[in-house]
Amino acid sequence: MKKENYGISLLRIWACIFVVCTHYHRNWEVWPDNYTYFWFLTVPVYFLISFYFGEKMFFEPDFDKKKNRLKRLLFPYLFWCVVSWLVADRTLKGLALQIFTGTVERINPVFWFLCDIMVMTLFFMILAALFKYKKLPVLIILSVISVLFVISEYEGTLYRLMENMPYEVINSYGRIIEMTPFMTEGLLLKELKIPEKLEKKRWVALPVLLVSFIIILLFRKTILPTAGYTYAFSGLSFIILAPVTFLFFWLLPFDGLNEKVKKVIKFFSTYVMSAYALHWIVGKLFPFNSLIWCICLAALCMLFGALLCKIHGKPGEFFKKVCC
Fold first, then answer.
1. Contact 249, 8 (CB under 8 A)
2. Residue 201: how many CB atoms within 10 A of its CB?
3. pTM, 2 dp
4. If the chain, 324 residues long, is cut into consecutive pieces of 10 residues, what is the mean pLDDT of each piece?
5. pLDDT at 264 (0 to 100)
6. What span, in angstroms and rounded, lies between the C-alpha atoms of 92 and 170?
7. Which end of the chain is more exposed for a tag (fewer CB within 10 A), N or C?
8. Where are the domains of the chain?
9. Which residue, among 178, 38, 66, has the nearest Cα to 116 in the 3D structure?
10. Alpha helices in 192-313 (DSSP H)
11. Which has the closest alpha carbon to 226: 148, 143, 155, 144?
12. Own/partner pairs, 76-82, CB within 8 angstroms, 24+ separation
């Protein structure tokens, strides 16, 4: 039986809440730069987590597993794009653009992340198949691509190639430039078994990771070069802090937690997709601007997703596919 890592489950909840904050708690002039940077870090972490736990599937010649993975991504993407479109737009052009990019501002722009995950999942699958599921050449190629993308964040070639494209295309597919390194980091952490190795030295690794995080967060503009081009997630600081954050939460000693607390963490982490999908729509209806509201908004969306999944019969089974 697969063991639950409650640190990662808590990280998924934290990432979800802070994504909501980036959309509905945006008084940038009030909050310190390091605090708001912390919010943006959640997106790279989410991509890293997604590909860390998908690594095994990429390198197995099992078509059914790959098909199920794509269906698990496609079903919620299409469903929530259509629901958002029915609420906010109801034009065929809007629907087509939302499905193609996942990021139409007037409909629901947050689904670019799922669009990018699907595109890169398919690309990784094809690449692995071309090399007959041999991990080393695939990981080397992905690492080289990631390095080239990071270089482009500083010198701008790929960004200049996309500058005349529509906003929706840039906001979705342009961000593949910035997300690919985090996806690759997830695969490498899994393949090299870094979390498992650090577990043996947990009480040394945890303070080192925490101190490293604080130093890089506070002094990133001094000790690291600033990316000259960005769609919000470029630069070496994100490249370093995403795996540091993941590893820190992985190593947190949650095995001794009270069972009720574990159930609460597991419950809310199960329904983070509901919060990602619904918070934009609900937030537009109730446009409050506070940290407490963002936390409540995320929690309410998760609870609503859980209620939908409790419906008996086929409707409940369907909602499990799009809310979990």
1. yes
2. 11
3. 0.94
4. 84 91 68 73 94 92 92 95 92 95 93 96 96 96 97 95 93 96 97 96 97 94 92 94 97 89 94 93 81 89 95 93 92
5. 94
6. 21
7. N
8. 6-323
9. 178
10. 194-199, 202-223, 236-251, 259-270, 272-285, 291-309
11. 155
12. 76/114, 76/273, 76/277, 76/321, 76/322, 76/323, 77/102, 77/111, 77/114, 77/115, 77/118, 79/322, 80/108, 80/111, 80/277, 80/278, 80/322, 81/107, 81/108, 81/111
Token pair for residue 314?
């086929």
pLDDT number for residue 181: 98
Task: Give Cα separations from 44 to 89, 107, 141, 221, 271 (angstroms).
Answer: 29, 23, 20, 19, 19
The tokens for 211 are 């101190």
For residue 9, with 0-12 CB atoms within 10 Å meaning exposed, 13-18 middle and 19 or more buried, which class applies?
A: buried
- pLDDT, residue 1, reads 47
pLDDT at 2: 62
Assigned token pair, 12: 């998924």
